[in-house]
Sequence to fold (189 residues):
Amino acid sequence: MPYFKNKVFFVRHGETEWNLEKRTQGSHDSPLTERGILQAIETAKSLKNHKFGMIVCSPLGRVLQTSNIIAKELRISNLTISPYIAERNFGVLEGRKKEESLKLFPQYWDKEGHFIHTSKVENGESLEEFLERIKQGVEEIRSFSETKNILVVTHDHALHAIVGNIKNIPFGEVQKSYKFNHGEPINLG
Fold:
């Protein structure tokens, strides 16, 4: 039995200034680059043959900017903001480049320089809190999908958590198996 009653496509927001600078965004924001704007337009073009009843998106600016571009291109008037699918709050790491974070906060990184996802980052959101919030978002999307096709615009870590929730895969395993490119739509139901 399908997870969603109608079609649900997921899209990661377009490229941002901080993506280019390799800064941790999390709950902070930076605007889309010119390339990010073009990615949103291309996303809309690639989805033009699908009829969406609504867009569900994170409240963060980069996602709202991406969603508004897609909504305009596809003439979707129902844009619903869901705080449940916002990116994880990375606390003191946000706005910093990885090299700076490695020096200032080595406790959040393993020997290979990979972020330890189970870390409770100062002023941030724990993995458990994040996954529970995303679970609520998935249930909200599932409810919306009862009556219409939906386009969901969100973030990289949020997409990993959503896939893990839908497919019952641990978050760390999803991170190894899935990559979400900016503006690339995927159909999960």
The longest strand covers residues 8-12. The mean pLDDT is 94. The two ends are 10 Å apart (CA to CA). Residues 8-187 form a domain with the Rossmann fold fold (CATH 3.40.50.1240).
